[in-house]
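Human: I wish I could look at a protein chain and see how it folds. This is the protein in question:
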Amino acid sequence: MTSPHANLLHKLNAKEAVIGIVGLGYVGLPLMLRYNDIGFRVLGIDIDQDKVDRLNAGQSYIEHIPSAKVARATGSGFEATTDFRRVAEADAIILCVPTPLNKYREPDMSFVVNTVDALKPHLREGQVVSLESTTYPGTTEEELLPRVQENGLVVGENVFLVYSPEREDPGNPDFETRTIPKVVGGHTPACRQVGEALYAPAIDRVVPVSSTKAAEMTKLLENIHRAVNIGLVNEMKVVADRMGIDIFEVVDAAATKPFGFTPYYPGPGLGGHCIPIDPFYLTWKAREYGLHTRFIELSGEVNRAMPEYVVGKLMDGLNDHGKALKGSRVLVLGIAYKKNVDDMRESPSVEIMELIESKGAEVSYSDPHVPVFPKMREHHFALSSVELSAESLAGFDAVVLATDHDRFDFELIKQHAKLIVDSRGTYREAAPHIVKA
C-alpha cells in the first residue's frame, strides 16, 4: 500500500490530480488557465456568486484575460463553485485570497483565516494546501498549520502544507504565469517535495527554499525592495524639482551605467495589491521581535505623501494661470494603479481625486480601461470615464496625468489641455502649460 505522500506525488506527476483554486481574481484566474492548459482538471472556488456564474458561462471579468480563454477552460473541464464542501474533490488546494491592511496599517488576515476555517471540515488525507497570498513570515505555521491539523490530519505525513508566493504582473506582455519562476517552501521536506511536484508541470522554473518562513520573507523582500527604491526616487524627485533639475532626465542618464544601478522612476504614489501593503506586514511582525523597520516606514511615508505633492503642483500650476483650485474643473487621466490594466486596488489616482474634490474643485476622470468608476470599499465617485477630444479637454481648467496608459493620445492632450500636471514624466520637453509633478 502506497503512502499518501507517494500517492499524491504520483497523481501530480501523472496530471491525474484535481487542482482546487480558492479565490479566482488576478492571481487565481491565470493560475487556473495555466493548469487547465496543461491537462489538469481544475475546480475553482470563490465566495462571489456573480464571479462564479460569469466564469461558468465562459466570461472573463479581468480586462487582460480574454473571455475566449475562460470559455475554452470551461469547455475542457474547468468548473467554478461557491460550495466549499467540494474542496474534498481536490488533491491540491491553492489559496489565492486577499491580504489587505486594516485602517491601522496592520495585516488583515481575515480572508485567509476565514477561508481555511471554511475548508478545514472538508480536508482529507492525501491533499496539499498551498498558500499564495502575501503575508508576514510565520503565517503558514501560525495560522494554517493548526487549522489543517485540527481534525486529526498530520502535516508532512498524510497532508501537506506549502507556501508559494504569487508573482503576477498584470498587463506585462514580457511575462506570463508559466515564465515567472516560482518560489516554494514546505513545512517539512516531504511538504516541499509535494510543492515542487505541484508547480513543476505548470511553471518553467521552481525555486525551492528551506521553509515556509523563508518563502514568506522572499516575497516581502521583493516588494520592499521596490517600495524603498520608489520612495528614494520620489524623494529625489522633490529635491531635483526644487533645484530646477528634471529627475527623469537624471534617471535615464544614470540607467546607462551597465552595473550597480537599477532605474526606478517616480510617480504619483504607490498602487496595486502588493507594494503599498506588503512592507507593512514585515513592519508589524518585526515589532514582535522588538525591532523597528525604519527604512520601510520612511519609504512608506514618502510614497504616501506623493498624491498631496501632485495636488500641490496642480495648485501651483493653476495659480500661475491666475486660477484657484477651488471652483476649477479638473480631469484626472488614468485611475488604474498602473498603465494598461483595469486594476484599481490602492490606486493613488483615487486619493488624488479625493484631495482635489476636498479642496472645492469639480473632478472628473478619463480611463479607457475603467469605463465606470467601480464600487470600492473605501472610495466612491458616481462618475463615468470622459471621452477625450479637443472639445472635452478644452473644457477643463487642468488635467492631471496620473496613469500613463498607452491608449491615451498624448499629442491630443498636449495640444488641447489648458494645463497639464504630469506625474509620470510623459512630456519630457518643457512647455508653458506643462507642470512636472
In short: The first helix runs from residue 4 to 13. Residues 305-436 form a domain with the Rossmann fold fold (CATH 3.40.50.720). The chain has three domains: 4-210, 220-302, 305-436. The longest strand covers residues 18-22.
